[in-house]
Amino acid sequence: SDMNKRNPFQKTIDRGSLNLKKRNNKMTREEIVKAVNSAFEELEIPEEELTPDQELFKGLGLDSLDMVDVMISLQRKFGVQLRGNEEIKKVRTLNDIYEFFVKLENEKAK
Predict the structure, then answer these.
(1) What is the pLDDT of residues 92-109, one digit of tens each?
(2) Collapsed DSSP state (helix, strand, coil) of residue 55
(3) What is the DSSP letter of 93?
(4) Radius of gyration (Cα) for the chain, nearest Å?
(5) Contact, 47 vs 37, CB < 8 A?
(6) Based on the number of CB atoms within 10 Å of its own CB, is 65 exposed (0-12), middle (13-18) or buried (19 or more)?
């Protein structure tokens, strides 16, 4: 159709808009939970196991390599650098990760 001819980049723009939104406004807690969970779903962890009090290592059976993958994914999703971050090293449960990013988003907005 005509429209497709006119703007071949529209698809790309739609895909990119999610990232723009994150940079400019605060993400809601709900959006943070979704983004964090999707990083774990990339490791093929069933969604129903992703509850806030779930322990990352004991509960989900992740090892440190899995956590590296998750961190890389979270860095991409949130546009932050997590290497050497002392707070993120203290996380034990999924809720700890949610709280970490909620705090980060709140600081961003100041």
Answers:
(1) 999 999 999 999 988 876
(2) strand
(3) B
(4) 16
(5) yes
(6) exposed
Among left, alpha and beta (phi > 0; psi -120 to 50; other), residue 109 is alpha
CA-CA-CA-CA dihedral for 81, 87, 92, 94, to nearest 10: -50
d(Cα 31, Cα 18) in Å, to the nearest integer? 11
Looking at the DSSP bridge assignments, the partners of residue 93 are: 55
Mean pLDDT value across residues 60-71: 92
pLDDT tens column, 3-16: 555 555 555 444 44
Q: What is the distance in angstroms between the CA of the first residue and the CA of the last residue of the chain?
A: 46
Residue 83 and residue 14 in contact, taking contact as beta carbons nearer than 8 Å: no
Q: Retrieve residue 17's tokens.
A: 């808009």
The answer to whether 49 and 10 are in contact (CB under 8 A) is: no
Stated pTM of the model: 0.74
User: Rounded distance, CA 79 to CA 40, Å?
Assistant: 17
Phi and psi (nearest 5°) for 97? -70, -45
